[in-house]
Amino acid sequence: QVVDFLTHVSGITQQKVRFAPLFGDVKARIYGLLKNKIIVGHTLRSDFKALSFKTDMKNVRDIQTFGLYR
């Protein structure tokens, strides 16, 4: 449950998210979409940590750390 939406910063209100899907449902869908895919992005470890997402790092191309992009 969200305690403070920081509406003055985010613009998000309780009314705007009243019918939003549950985080666990969205997370499961994200897992399904990314399973066995090559994932390209920037600083992905922090995103994975926030989502408690575990993936085979051989399928990750993080432009911050991937040698070919340096």
Would you kindly provide a written description of the structure presented here, covering whatever features stand out?
The chain is mainly alpha-helical and 70 residues long. It has helices at 7-10, 14-17, 23-34, 44-51; strands spanning 39-41, 60-62. It has a two-stranded parallel ribbon. Helix 4 (44-51) links the parallel strand 1 and strand 2. The radius of gyration is 16 Å and the shape is elongated. The N and C termini lie far apart (41 Å).
Compile the SSE list and pairings.
Blueprint: H1 7-10, H2 14-17, H3 23-34, E1 39-41, H4 44-51, E2 60-62
Structural class by sheet pairing and helices: mainly alpha
Low-confidence stretches: none
Proportion in helices: 40-55%
Strand content: 5-15%
- Element string (H = helix, E = strand): HHHEHE
Tally of DSSP helical segments: 4
Looking at the chains present, what oligomeric state does this protein adopt? single chain
Strand order of the main beta sheet, please?
A: 1-2
Question: Overall 3D geometry?
Answer: elongated
Distance between the termini: 41 Å
Mean pLDDT: 87
Strand elements, count: 2
**Which sheet architecture does the biggest sheet show?**
2 strands, parallel
The gyration radius over C-alpha positions equals: 16 Å
